[in-house]
Amino acid sequence: MENFGHLLDGFATVISGQHFIIMTVGVMLGILVGVLPGLGAPNGVSLLLPLTFTMDLVSAIILLSCMYWGALFGGSTTSILFNIPGEPSSVATTFDGYPMARSGQATRALTLAFVSAGIGAIAGVIMITLLSGWVARFALQFSSPEFFAVYFLAFASFIGMGANAPAKTLVSMMLGFALATVGMDTISGGLRLTFGVPDLIKGVSFLVAVMGLFGIGELLLTTEEGLRFQGIKAHIRPLDVLRAVAEIPRHAVTIGRSILIGIWMGITPAGPTAASFMAYGMTRRFARNPETLGKGDPRGIVSPEAADHSAGTSALLPMLALGVPGSATAAVMMGGLMIWGLTPGPMLFIDRPDFVWGLIASMYLGNVVAVLLVLSTVPLYAAILRVPFAIIGPIIVAVIFSGAYQIANSAFDMWLVLIFGVAGYVFKKLDYPIAPLVLAMVLGDKAEDAFRQSMLMSDGSLSIFWSNPLVFSIMGLGILMLAWPLIGKAMGLRNLIRRGRENTSNAS
Asked: CB-side exposure of 202: number of CA atoms within 13 Å?
């Protein structure tokens, strides 16, 4: 009931004409970011951050969060109409969304996607409403060892539960740690890894890195592939929308299962992409007729969309309550809070309850606004995609470089964007994940400070990380996550040996 009272206060904070306009603008920009290849939610949020510096904090976070929801919906639009996932988490939606649209049911496919996505997002917000206060109170018991253990668990979860090869995730993360150390040491005051370059004394901005890695890198890859937009014309007919909405209850079990997967994958750092693929795989596994999946089956649309959006929303819970982002976009938003002078973690709920609960209340309203807007603007954004990429590409490049310059009015940052863009292109070609690098850049200095403070408390003894049941359990879970890929391989090898023995005994 306490959280419900706080939520009502949050609604009182955000319900105003100004905030509704900000929600609408944020969702529209987000849809555009999700539709256009080469952008994406992390890059779009980072581009908008400089524009929020003159806004009040509640309005600023509403703008960024609504752009996040809009980007997720925009990625679904291109997946269904053009077979081009605007977001990595929308890849699974193409499996059945595009075939259904090609069969003349574009309105049905879009409506199923948007409504199930909205349900998943609202479920994630309800989870945040119910658990955020408890998680924040629990986190008040933390000191430096416990905070380092939480950071260690976040890093280990990316390695153990990520969709990419653990070794590649580890390499990406280590590069992020190295970039996080560039500049002035916050404890000793010494300079590290500046190589005599004055512009590096201030460190490497994670916003600059995100714009290059996600923006320029994706554009280079898109240019190489010679992308051509050949989509399906979409005319949203109200009667078809109502019929598709009436169909949703028949998929309640699929949506419910996908929401649970999404919430779990959002709280852990696995993220929306892994959640959408896992939900689709579980749907195929439990389907009575799995052969229809991949041919325009509605279950193949509602399951990844519900998981995608519930995971994207749930990723904000550990970011707000623990200071540990659950996705790349949440990491960028967390960086924004730190730029605004706010420290994500349990004290944020005590020091700025108006901000936290205003954000949570805006999640409810923002997702409803997003569903309504995306249904009404599909033809507009589909028309934008028919503009030649030779025109869209340079516009995106100009926006990225101008945004990078605005961060610190530094021409050096524009060179860094270019360098990170090439690095992002190489990462994607070699199938290295970028999200762990961003996470390490955002949390690297915080994890280092927590570790060094713990060492000061224990006179250099690592036993402090096993000194009480709380830190022991968190560190133990982190080690389990690190070892999870090895455990999976060992179990697979054991099953293979057992089947070999069974085959040998049957042959004899």
From this structure: 9
Closest CA to 211 of 396, 12, 410: 396
The single-letter code of the amino acid at 352 is R
Separation of alpha carbons 75 and 308, rounded Å = 11
Instruction: From residue 28, give the alpha-carbon distance in Å to each of 15, 31, 67.
Output: 19, 5, 7
In 3D space, the residue among 507, 415, 453 whose CA is nearest the CA of residue 211 turns out to be: 415
d(CA 412, CA 266): 35
Q: 331, 338 in Cβ contact below 8 A?
A: no
Q: What is the enclosing helix (H) or strand (E) of 192?
A: strand 191-192
Averaged pLDDT for residues 309-332: 78
CA distance 359 to 344: 13
C-alpha to C-alpha distance for 61 and 337, rounded to whole angstroms: 8
**So what's the pLDDT on residue 320?**
81
Tokens of 160: 């153990």
Cα–Cα distance for residue pair 435/270, rounded to 1 Å: 10
Sign of CA dihedral 158, 164, 165, 170: negative
DSSP secondary structure letters along 222-248: HHHHT-----------HHHHHHHHHHG
The torsion angles phi and psi of 184, rounded to 5 degrees, stand at -90, 130
Query: Who contacts 173 (Cβ-Cβ below 8 Å, separation ≥6)?
Result: 155, 158, 159, 436, 437, 439, 440
Contact 168, 147 (CB under 8 A): no
Question: What is the rounded CA–CA span in Å between residue 87 and residue 385?
Answer: 15
pLDDT confidence bin for 372, thresholds 50/70/90 = confident
Q: Please tell me what DSSP assigns to residue 74.
A: H
Tell me the two tokens of residue 239.
Answer: 């009667």
Least Cα distance to 327 among 341, 346, 314, 339 occurs for: 314
Q: How far is Cα 480 from Cα 500, in angstroms, rounded to an integer?
A: 29
Could you give the percent of the chain with pLDDT greater than 90? 2
Render 100-154 in DSSP notation, one character per residue.
Answer: HHHTT-HHHHHHHHHHHHHHHHHHHHHHHHHHHHHHHHHHTT--HHHHHHHHHHH
Strand partners, 184: 191
- Which DSSP string do the residues of 459-504 spell out, in sequence order? TT-GGGGGSSHHHHHHHHHHHHHHHHHHHHHHHHHHHHHHHHHHHH
Q: Which residues contact 400 (CB under 8 A, 6 or more apart)?
A: 43, 47, 211, 212, 215, 216, 417
Name the pTM for this structure. Answer: 0.67
For residues 393 and 38, is the Cβ–Cβ distance under 8 A?
Answer: yes
pLDDT band, residue 175 (cuts 50/70/90): very high
